[in-house]
Amino acid sequence: MSTRFPEELMVDLRGDNPRGLRFVVDVANAYRNDSTLPIDAFQELVDRHTAPGTALPSRGDAAELHAAIDDIVGILAAQEPDAAARRINATLNRYPAHPHLVQLPGRPWSMHLRSDTTNRAQWFASTAAFALGLWLSEKGSCAWGTCEAPGCDDFFIDSGRRAPQRYCTPRCATRARVANHRLKHSAG
Questions:
Q1: Other CB atoms closer than 10 Å to residue 44's CB: what's the count?
Q2: Helix axes 62-77, 19-33, angle to 10 degrees
Q3: Hey, which residues does 112 pair with through a beta bridge?
Q4: pLDDT number for residue 184
Q5: Cα separation of 27 and 150, whole Å?
Q6: In the structure, what pLDDT confidence band is assigned to residue 2 with cuts at 50, 70 and 90?
Q7: CB 3.0-4.6 Å disulfide test: which of 16, 41, 116, 186 passes with 160?
Q8: Cβ-count burial of 31 within 10 angstroms (0-12 exposed, 13-18 middle, 19+ buried)?
Q9: Looking at residue 63, what is its pLDDT?
Q10: What is the rounded distance in angstroms from the CA atom of residue 107 to the CA atom of residue 5?
Q11: What is the pTM (predicted TM-score) of this model?
Q12: What confidence tens digit (pLDDT) does each residue in 11-32 have?
């Protein structure tokens, strides 16, 4: 049975819309917040980012999934393109991707990954590494990072603002600005 790769999880290289990478960082952040991330919590993240009724691999245990997520966390933690590329290649060697072209109604051909021959760890690691590799090759740099707000270390995807992104959310950026403002005025 062939299962299509959900459109919502693919990197859209037209413009600066990294749809699939929002899923990747949500999983990585959830795992960093709870290294015992249960399968059902992972599935909730998948469901949040996919169309209702999308079938994805259900085989594989939590330990396999955690090892795969560890690989992706290592990629997201990389700051230099060469280091990130080495990690992406190592992950793709460990969890080979099975790409194929798909044309969704009213859309141009796009590269998707097959999920029907893999377990959940294989699917997640190959999907995430493939998407991060496409984003790295398109942007020419690690267009992702770790939030610089005090008390937050969430990953984010830099979607191409003029200045490099430093915070995971506008809320963290505001918290950091307010803390910096208070620090400057209390020292003066």
A1: 12
A2: 110
A3: 100
A4: 79
A5: 21
A6: very low
A7: 16
A8: buried
A9: 95
A10: 15
A11: 0.82
A12: 444 444 565 799 999 999 999 9
